[in-house]
Amino acid sequence: MSNASLATKASPPASDISEPQPMRKRRGVNREGLEAGKRSTRTILWILLAVAMVLYGFPFLYLLFTSFKTPIDTIAVPPTILPREWTLENYTNALGRSGVLASFINSIQTAVISTVLSLVLAVPAAYGITRYKTPSGQVFIMAALVTRMVPPVAIGIPLASMMSSVGLADTPIALSIAHTTISLPLSIWLMSSFFESVPRDLEEAATVDGCSRLGALWRVVIPVVSGGIAVTAIFAFLASWNEFLFALLMTAIRSQTTPVVIANFQTQFGLDWGSMTALAAVYSIPVILLTLLLQRKIVAGMTLGAVKG
Amino acid sequence: MSTRNTISKLVTLGGLCTAVALAATGCGAGGPAPSSGGSAGSSSINVLVEAGGHAELTGVAEQCKKDTGVEANFVELPYDGMFNRLSSEFSSGNVSFDVAALDSVWLPSFKDAVQPIDELFTDDVKKDIFPALVKEANVDGHFIGLPAWTNAEIILYRKDLFEDAKNKADFQAKYGYELAAPTTWKQYQDISEFFTKDGMYGTDVKGAVETEWLAHVLQAGSPMVLDQDNNVVIDNAAHKEALDFYVSLAKSAPTGAAQVDWAAAQNLFNQGKTAMTRFWAHAYRQIPADAPVAGKVGAAAMIGGSAGVAGVPGPWYLSVPKATKNTEAAKKFVKCAYDYNSMGIDSKLGLASRISAFEKYQDQPGYESFKPLIETLNAPATATRPATAKWQQIVDTVLIPLLQKAVAGGDTSALLADAKKQVQDLLK
Which domains does chain B have, with CATH numbers? Predict the structure, then answer.
């Protein structure tokens, strides 16, 4: 309920102006009660929001603080949240390790290619499914969802063998294709829900103005769902950016991505928490920047689905 | 209109990014690397190592390039993912590496995928490698891996506490013998009990790892889990005795023993929470300089039971896959790793596999853990883990749950009897 409607309901009608004082007082009390209720609701919401932020933010903050701890501080029993002594040694160790820079570039390459592939395939697929609504389209979209139920470990080894047999072993393109298999089904589902929320009248109007169907899609529909595309792109990018298993099975010297390099700080004979957290903290920066950059589009994308129908 | 412009810009930018990324995709940022699928007879090889092993072989690789012209490119993988990767590549018959560093427990699993390297095991080589490792490297009559480095559990103890005059006097008064690094189970129990006071514990008990209990089984005079004919002997008297000893230490150890693993035990000791630990020898040289126990730690050989001192070695072997096209260069590298084995001692892990390499350093300051390590590895009762491809499965599904239930107070006889059935089922 909007503030305006609440205000309208709370205001006395003109015919009540001559009502006796006690009744007006009661109305005033009601208004105060309503506002107090709104205040307490807002307070509860803020508290819930703060709790959610702590739940989501604390692990990352702990990782960040750990990356500035000395070696003995990282393994303190009981653990401390803030470093007792701040140091950049972990960052020096992590970034100075051979292959780290190359792994960053590989991660970016892989994630960008995988995101573009996902969008290029998901947008027309989702558009076709939502606009034509053929039985085969409905089967296809359900089948796409079913592929999400197959554990990646079940297809990882055969996929690695296939890539190797077609000469793509240890290349970012092989890993990107593998990552696209993860993100594509959900990208299609996400884009379908966004296309559903766009009224067909818009396209029909564009057609009347002389657009072809493809032209209407390109000039009218896609700009309307750009927020949804941003959300889907972020999802696809993150799925590739954080993926570990396929990267482990399919990369070696040329295309190893950073998640594998981060995991390399755990060896059979020890775990270098400091360097591991330092590299993880650095690795999270591009994702944070990307999210900030696309923040408005993401919010637009979220509300796009909300006004469906 | 502005939205359309923004979209156009985004699309253009995306297109450019893709073009750049695709252009660079021909070879990833790691640079063009020779693969085993590349030219035969190449002098450049790929070496697959667990992340901790890279440093061990870096010096060797440099020296090998100078001596033989063979250049090694390392593929580093985390320990937890290595087995899957090796399985994947070996089963496909198309490997991306020419040499692989294999954990000893994997040798039986990959015996058919790697080449015999019998010619590298000369008499001199066999004499300079610990007997248990020579035995383990030989699978079905052929040597299939040359040990690159090895480890074993030894005793690390708080020298400052052991040398403290009051502690010495109190211990003597209570137990009737002098406080010193333990050599027997009884001494280990007594000392653990003695130091469990004032918020400190005498030792740790690791319920999440099996190696330590298995070392006690060897010390009690039995082979581990399987005898030489692959009969399951996990319920024999020695296993029960070793398990009872292991569990008896729980009262002198921090609570939550069922979840304590290597990392937790190492942390507890480095933080000064435990007076002793049975731990891999490399940990002695990895105590952080700012740890409360830095400079206060002594090392001793593993304790002994009725069969004497014994430990379970933790070696890594260099093997050459059958599928490599660079066999000659790969074998040259393996030979280099043996010839320059002592160079690994200067690495962060600080281990080697040759007896002579450890002996070269054993009297130098900072390497006090090497004498106890040599003693433990040379002990007659020391033995490697059973050569079965199912070993890791036995560990994960039978031994660890068994230990966790035992340290939590389970009936050890019943647990061992149950474990026997489970192992037999796994081996069927």
Answer: 44-150+314-353 (3.40.190.10), 153-312+385-427 (3.40.190.10)
- Report ipTM for this prediction: 0.73
Judge whether B309 and B146 are in contact, CB under 8 Å.
no
Which residues in chain A are closer than 8 Å to B89, comparing Cβ atoms? 160, 164
List CB contacts (< 8 A) between A160 and chain B. Answer: 88-89, 92
Residue A86 has pLDDT above 90, yes or no: yes
Task: Kindly state whether residue A34 falls inside one of the protein's structural domains.
Answer: no
Parent domain of A153: 98-306
Please name which of B140, B121, B100 lies closest in space to residue B354, comparing C-alpha atoms: B121
- Residue A15: predicted pLDDT: 44
> Could you tell me how many residues make up chain A?
309
Q: Assess whether pLDDT exceeds 70 at residue B10.
A: no
pLDDT in tens, A159-190: 888 888 888 888 999 999 999 999 999 999 99
**Residue A27 in domain:** no
Give per-residue pLDDT as tens, A8-55: 444 444 444 445 555 555 666 677 788 888 888 999 999 999 999 999
Nearest to B22 among A113, A219, A270 (CB): A113
Contact A227, A299 (CB under 8 A): yes
> Is A33 within a domain?
no
Mutate to test the interface with B, among A98, A117, A254 (most CBs of B within 10 A): A254
| Interatomic CA distance for residues A296 and A305, integer angstroms | 15
Which chain A positions have a beta carbon within 8 Å of B35's beta carbon? 169-170, 252
Q: Does A218 map to a domain?
A: yes
- State whether A77 and B77 contact (CB < 8 Å): no
Least confident range of A169-178, B175-184, B218-227: A169-178
Partner residue facing A169 (CB), from B27, B35, B77: B35
Euclidean distance between CA atoms A237 and B285, whole angstroms = 42
Helix (H, G, I), strand (E, B) or coil at B327: helix
CATH value at residue A247: 1.10.3720.10
Are A171 and B267 an interchain contact pair (Cβ–Cβ within 8 Å)?
no
Question: Which chain B residues have a beta carbon less than 8 Å from that of A270?
Answer: 52, 263, 266, 283, 286
- Domain count of chain A? 1
CB neighbour list of residue B200: distance below 8 Å, 6 or more residues apart = B272, B273, B274, B275
Give the residue on B whose Cα is nearest the Cα of A117.
B18
